[in-house]
Amino acid sequence: MSEDPWESSDPALALAQRELHWYTQAAARARISNRVSEVALLVLSAATTVAAALGAPAWLTASLAAATLVLTGLRKTFDWHENWLSFTASRSDLRTLIHHYRLLPEAQRDDQARQRLLEQIDETFSSEVGRWASRRRKIDTQAHA
After folding, report:
1. CA distances, 62 to each of 30, 56, 135 (Å)
2. pTM above the 0.90 mark?
3. Taking the CB of residue 61, how many other CB atoms lie within 10 A of it?
4. Beta strand spans in 35-137 (E)
5. CB of 87 within 8 A of CB of 56?
6. DSSP-based three-state secondary structure for 145
7. Other Cβ atoms within 10 Å of 43 Cβ, number
8. Which residue positions in the chain have pLDDT lower than 50?
9. CA distance readout (Å), 122 to 12, 90, 142
10. What pLDDT is stored for residue 88 in this prediction?
């Protein structure tokens, strides 16, 4: 998707499809990262308990516990779960916008319809940024409390 959407015959639609592609990919990456981190956290936590119960060397038990702590911090820092939900919501919004635009008869896909689509794309992006900023502020507030 390296082609410039503004050089397309319908730049608004091409831009919407490009954004949809980005959100689809971002949601998939966040979903995978979230699931991998959840499973790894469970495995590390269980391994720490088992290592302690079996009398494993202190360095091993401490290393497992430290890895669990680092992974917990990474999850909080990168917020994969919330990103997955947010990107999925934005992807859904964009899909709906594209469907509505494509259902317009070709004759009605004029400059006004394109402008409206671009404004809706911008609103979707702004909402996403707003949700992200709100989450970051909440996390920062909790960290400093």
Report:
1. 29, 10, 32
2. no
3. 19
4. none
5. no
6. coil
7. 14
8. none
9. 11, 11, 30
10. 97
